[in-house]
Specification:
The protein is 31% helix and 28% strand. It has 424 residues and is an alpha+beta fold. It folds into four domains: 2-93, 3-Layer(aba) Sandwich (Rossmann fold); 125-180, 2-Layer Sandwich (Dna Ligase, domain 1), CATH 3.30.1490.20; 191-319, ATP-grasp fold, B domain (D-amino Acid Aminotransferase, Chain A, domain 1), CATH 3.30.470; 328-421, Glycinamide Ribonucleotide Synthetase, Chain A, domain 4 (Alpha-Beta Complex). A hairpin with a 5-residue loop joins strand 14 and strand 15 (280-286). The protein binds adenosine-5'-triphosphate (ATP) and magnesium ion.
C-alpha cells in the first residue's frame, strides 16, 4: 500500500516513520517532507504543497490513504477537496477545522454545549474592546480569531499590555484578517496538558497523554515558541482526570459537532489548563496532532498505525485498541540560532546517530544541499529518548544531543521537569 503524509515538520516525520513500520507498506510519500524523511528508504519526499496537485498525485499514484499534519491545508479545505474526488483522507473538513481556525467559533461552540472554558467576549470594534478591558482589568488574555502561526495570543499581565495587544490586532492590523476579530478571555491559572484523540465522526480513540513546553528557555521562561520539547505519558493526567476530560470536554465536543451538522473527523487536540483542585478547562482546540507531542507519542505506539488510520476513515475506530510502550518517551527540540523570531538557515548538522530502541531523532527544519545536511527552519530536530522513568528518558535524549552539532543550536536542558518534580 502507498500512503501520503502532508507536511514537512517533525510531526510528519514521526507519523510517516510509524506508518512505514507496517508490513503492508510499499511506500510512504511525504509532501513536501524534510531532510530526515529524505534519508529513510521507506519514505519518499514529493515536492508538492498545493492541495489540488496533491489530490492529483494521490489519484495518479493510487494512494490508499492521505494523512494531513498541519492546520493550514485543513483550514483551506484539503479534506473537502479529496472527498469530492473520492479519495480517502484523514482530517477534519474546512467546516470542522473551524474549531482551530476560528477562536470565536470554538468559544461560542463551547459555550453553546456547556464545555468548560474561560469566560470570554469577541470584538471587531476596538473602542468596545478597550472598554471591555477597562471593565475586566489584568491579567487577561487577547487572542486573534484566526490562524496566526503561534503569534496570535497575548497573555497580558498588565492592562497596558492588554490595550497594546488590542491596538496591534484591531487598529494596526498587524495580523491581517486573522486579527480582524479578537477574543478576550479570562486569565486561567494552572498547569497545561495536551489531550489528543482520534475521531471518525462519532467514535473517539484517545491517544497516550502528553505535555509540551512552549517557552524557549529553561524553567518555562522566555518567548513562546512552536514547542521546545514534550513527553508522554504526562503524569498530571491521572486516570481520574482522563475520565473527567473525556466526559466533560471530549465527548460533548464530538457529539456537539455532530449535532450541529459538522461531524468531526481527524485528530482533535484539546489544550487544557488544569487548576490546583484538578479541574480542567479548555484553553483551545487544535484539529491536528501537536508538534512536538507527536514525536514522543509515536515513539511509544506499538499498534500498526496504518490499520488505525484505515479504521479511522472507515468509521470503525470503536474496534481499535491501542497498545503503548510502557516506557516514557521524552523529546527535546534542537532549534536554529535566532529561533523563534528570525531563525538562521544553512548551518551544517553533524553527528545524528542511527536510531536505537532507546533513541530516535526526528527531523523538521533540515535539508540536504550538495549531499550535506543543513538547517533550513526554526525547529531543526526533535531527539526522543525512551526510558523506564521520565529521568531515564531525559538522560537518553540529552546523551544523544551531545553527539549532535550545528552552529547556534538552542535547546532547553530541563524538558520533563514538571513530571520529575511531581510527587509520586
Ligand atoms: N485563558 C488563558 N489563561 C492563561 N493562559 C492562556 C489562556 N489562553 C491561552 N493561554 C496561554 O497561551 C498559549 C497559547 O494559547 P492558545 O493555545 O489559545 O493559542 P494558539 O496560538 O492556538 O496555540 P497553539 O500554537 O498551541 O495552537 C497557551 O498554551 C497558554 O499558555
Ligand atoms: Mg491552537
Amino acid at each position: 500500500m502507498k500512503i501520503l503524509v502532508v507536511g514537512s515538520g517533525g510531526r510528519e516525520h514521526a507519523l510517516a516513520w510509524k506508518i512505514a513500520q507496517s508490513e503492508r507498506i510499499q511506500m510512504v510519500y511525504v509532501a513536501p517532507g524534510n531532510g530526515g524523511t529524505a534519508l529513510d528508504a521507506r519514505l519518499k519526499n514529493v515536492a508538492i504543497t498545493d492541495p489540488a496537485a496533491l489530490a492529483q498525485f494521490a489519484r495518479d499514484e493510487h494512494i490508499t490513504l492521505t494523512v494531513v499534519g498541519p492546520e493550514t491545508p485543513l483550514a483551506a479545505g484539503i479534506v473537502n477537496l479529496f472527498r469530492e474526488r473520492g479519495l480517502k483522507i484523514f482530517g477534519p473538513t474546512r467546516e470542522a477545522a473551524q474549531l482551530e481556525s476560528s477562536k470565536d467559533f470554538a468559544k461560542s461552540f463551547m459555550q453553546r454545549h456547556g464545555i468548560p472554558t474561560a469566560e470570554y467576549q469577541t470584538f471587531a470594534d476596538s473602542a468596545a474592546a478597550h472598554a471591555y478591558l477597562d471593565q475586566r482589568g489584568a491579567p487577561i488574555v487577547i487572542k486573534a480569531d484566526g490562524l496566526a502561526a503561534g503569534k496570535g495570543v497575548v497573555v497580558a499581565m498588565s492592562s497596558d499590555e492588554a490595550h497594546a495587544a488590542v491596538d496591534m490586532m484591531l487598529s494596526d492590523n498587524k495580523l491581517g484578517d486573522a486579527g480582524a476579530r479578537v477574543v478576550i478571555e479570562e486569565f486561567l491559572e494552572g498547569e497545561e496538558a495536551s489531550f489528543i484523540v482520534m475521531v471518525d465522526g462519532k467514535n473517539i480513540l484517545p491517544l497516550a497523554t502528553s505535555q509540551d513546553h512552549k517557552r524557549l528557555l529553561d524553567q518555562d521562561l522566555g518567548p513562546n515558541t512552536g514547542g521546545m520539547g514534550a513527553y508522554s505519558p504526562a503524569p498530571i493526567v491521572t486516570p481520574a482526570l482522563h475520565a473527567r476530560v473525556m466526559r466533560e470536554i471530549i465527548i460533548p465536543t464530538v457529539h456537539g459537532m455532530a449535532k450541529d451538522g459538522i461531524p468531526f473527523t481527524g485528530f482533535l487536540y484539546a489544550g487544557l489548563m488544569i487548576d490546583k483542585a484538578g479541574n480542567a478547562k479548555t484553553l483551545e482546540f487544535n484539529c491536528r496532532m501537536g508538534d512536538p507531542e507527536t514525536q514522543p507519542i509515536m515513539a511509544r505506539l506499538k499498534t500498526d498505525l496504518l490499520s488505525v488510520f484505515e479504521h479511522a476513515v472507515a468509521g470503525t475506530l470503536d474496534t481499535v485498541e491501542l497498545e503503548w510502550d510502557r516506557r516514557t518517551a521524552l523529546g527535546v527540540v534542537m532549534a536554529a540560532a535566532g529561533y523563534p523570531d528570525a531563525p538562521r538557515k544553512g548551518d551544517a548538522i553533524t553527528g545524528i546517530p542511527a536510531e536505537t530502541v532507546e533513541c530516535v531523532t526526528f527531523h523538521a527544519g533540515t535539508t540536504h544541499i550538495d549531499g550535506k545536511l543543513q538547517t533550513s527552519g526554526g525547529r531543526v530536530l526533535c531527539v526522543v529518548g525512551l526510558g523506564d522513568s521520565v529521568k531515564m528518558a531525559q538522560k537518553q535524549a540529552y546523551e544523544t544531543i551531545e553527539q549532535i552539532g550545528f552552529d547556534g543550536a538552542q535547546y532547553r536542558s530541563d524538558i520533563g521537569w514538571r513530571a520529575i518534580k511531581r510527587p509520586a
